[in-house]
């Protein structure tokens, strides 16, 4: 029986909508839930409720806001198994991915609670002997728009620190994962007795996302926007928000390289290439999308990588925990991956492993002979298909890694730490990880992209800076001299 979530959470209460939309399990095509399909009036009521909730929430002592984050963390831990099952059913992910994600969310809330205790202002010198302060204040209502691939982590990462800073939140999860990315958090905050209106959720189907998306950016109640998703949508959102002079933090797509130098530990490199390329079917923004291997170790590395990837079982992860490679999220995504694969093969790429596409199920696929004219070289794949490309020297590896509009993350494998840091310093990416893959995230670290991968990082004090307003406040003690004519 499909679950029913036909009410939206706004102002601390659940409100019935006129319509619902189906939330499909991509692994078996069954309707997992029916979800409230909010219309524009529902959304405006939600924004109003968030505005009303702002004064109580923002004026509450920061210690109490931090305590709510800690309670939310405990509540998430308590619901971990249920959330894991929901993540698998809504998102089509492997059980291990679900457990990781469900467990990570509480650390996001605990990191947010800690942020509330950080010094966020400064006392400045004053020419006139004033008490001169730069203080940070919450902005008001922030809209948070999140994607489907890690809905629990990417929603909570978007809202937790802005929220603990005193902003009230309107969260809009992806229509592919409206429960794990949104309704789940409404249940958590409802259960812990959060003050009314501090946290609200908007769910809608893809049919009315354009209208509702605009409202979540352009409505004067909204003071800032946190967006995680594709570069195409993020670019449009940043432009709209910019036209309204609203702060935005956009985290977008990637085309990340893992560079394997000739002195690297090849077993470890093969393991990291396998994890980075195929975890969650390659549907991670910072997935390894190009494995660059020094020509001296290329022939040795390839069979090691293939052997590991060959063991990854493909199938519906909701029916069998040992299926590590589940379905892609939807037919559109499977179509993009198939087109890139066919284009590469037509232009001369060789399939060393996999290559099978069965509906939304795509085998872990390793390609060689990939060249810059191929779609898979240029565009984000977001699927379990990865090229392995040889390079002659570090200069060439850096040039290939930087040969993309994207700039999210990168990984470098080498036994020489100085060499690793030197390469890292020259990669045009928001993050670089020496002796690890590009896939890394910790809630207190700055996570963001360069080039077309994003503007303004999330995480730790960087989220706090993005979603607070800096004010200059002074206190004069009689030392400021004025022109005597006045
Ligand atoms: P998407 O851009 O299609 O959707 C993201 C969100 O935007 C969803 O909630 C969607 O409903 C909403 N949206 C769509 N159209 C909108 C509109 N007109 N106005 C307002 N909101 C709108 O992306 P997706 O398919 O959900 O996610 C996959 C993409 O996200 C990939 O490109 C991936 O690399 C990227 N991503 C980036 C990060 C990061 O931190 N950099 C993390 C995860 C995913």
UniProtKB/TrEMBL annotation:
Recorded GO MF terms: oxidoreductase activity, acting on the aldehyde or oxo group of donors, NAD or NADP as acceptor
Alphabetical keyword list: NAD, Oxidoreductase
Entry-linked InterPro entries: Ald_DH/histidinol_DH, Ald_DH_C, Ald_DH_N, Aldehyde_DH_dom
Highest taxon of the lineage: Bacteria
Aldehyde dehydrogenase domain segment(s): 18-473
Gene3D superfamilies documented for this protein: Aldehyde Dehydrogenase, Chain A, domain 1, Aldehyde Dehydrogenase, Chain A, domain 2
Pfam families cross-referenced by the UniProt entry: Aldedh
Transmembrane helix listed as a keyword: no
Family: Belongs to the aldehyde dehydrogenase family.
Name of the protein described by the UniProt record: Aldehyde dehydrogenase family protein
UniProt source species: Roseibium aggregatum
Organism ancestry: Bacteria, Pseudomonadati, Pseudomonadota, Alphaproteobacteria, Hyphomicrobiales
């Amino acid at each position: 029986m499909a679950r029913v979530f036909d009410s939206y959470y706004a102002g601390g209460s659940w409100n019935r909508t006129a319509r619902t939309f189906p939330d499909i399990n991509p692994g078996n095509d069954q309707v997992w839930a029916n979800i409230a399909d909010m219309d524009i009036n529902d959304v405006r009521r939600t924004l109003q409720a968030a505005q009303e909730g702002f004064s109580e929430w923002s004026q509450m002592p920061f210690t109490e806001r931090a305590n709510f984050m800690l309670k939310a963390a405990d509540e998430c831990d308590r619901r971990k198994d249920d959330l894991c099952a929901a993540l698998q059913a809504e998102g089509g992910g492997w059980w291990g991915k679900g457990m990781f994600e469900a467990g990570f969310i509480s650390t996001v809330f605990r990191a947010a609670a800690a942020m509330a205790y950080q010094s966020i202002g400064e006392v400045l010198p004053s020419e006139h002997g004033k008490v001169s302060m730069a203080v940070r204040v919450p902005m008001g209502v922030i809209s948070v728009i999140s994607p489907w691939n890690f809905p629990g982590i990417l929603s909570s990462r978007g809202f937790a620190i802005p929220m603990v800073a005193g902003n009230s939140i309107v969260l809009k999860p992806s229509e592919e994962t409206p429960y794990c990315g949104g309704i789940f958090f409404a249940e958590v905050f409802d259960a812990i007795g959060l003050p009314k209106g501090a946290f609200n959720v908007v769910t809608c189907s893809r049919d009315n996302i354009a209208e509702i998306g605009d409202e979540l950016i352009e409505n004067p109640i909204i003071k800032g926007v946190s967006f995680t998703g594709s570069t195409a949508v993020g670019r449009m959102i940043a432009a709209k928000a910019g036209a309204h002079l609203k702060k935005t933090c956009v985290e977008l797509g990637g085309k990340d390289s893992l560079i394997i130098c000739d002195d690297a530990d090849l077993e470890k490199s093969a393991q990291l290439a396998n994890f980075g390329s195929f975890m969650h079917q390659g549907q991670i923004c910072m997935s390894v999308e190009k494995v660059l291997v020094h020509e001296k170790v290329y022939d040795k590395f390839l069979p090691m990588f293939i052997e590991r990837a060959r063991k990854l079982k493909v199938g519906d992860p909701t029916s069998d925990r040992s299926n590590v490679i589940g379905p892609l999220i939807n037919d559109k995504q499977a179509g993009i991956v198939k087109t890139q694969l066919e284009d590469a093969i037509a232009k001369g790429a060789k399939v060393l492993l996999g290559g099978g596409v069965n509906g939304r199920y795509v085998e872990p696929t390793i390609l060689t002979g990939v060249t810059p004219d191929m779609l898979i070289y240029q565009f984000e794949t977001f699927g379990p298909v990865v090229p392995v490309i040889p390079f002659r020297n570090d200069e060439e590896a850096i040039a290939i890694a930087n040969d993309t509009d994207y700039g999210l993350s990168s990984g470098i494998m080498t036994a020489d730490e100085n060499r690793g840091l030197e390469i890292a310093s020259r990669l045009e990416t928001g993050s670089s990880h020496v002796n690890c893959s590009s896939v890394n995230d910790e809630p207190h670290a700055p996570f963001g992209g360069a080039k077309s991968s994003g503007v303004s990082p999330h995480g730790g004090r960087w989220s706090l800076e993005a979603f607070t307003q800096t004010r200059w406040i002074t206190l004069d003690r009689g030392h400021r001299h004025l022109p005597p004519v006045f």
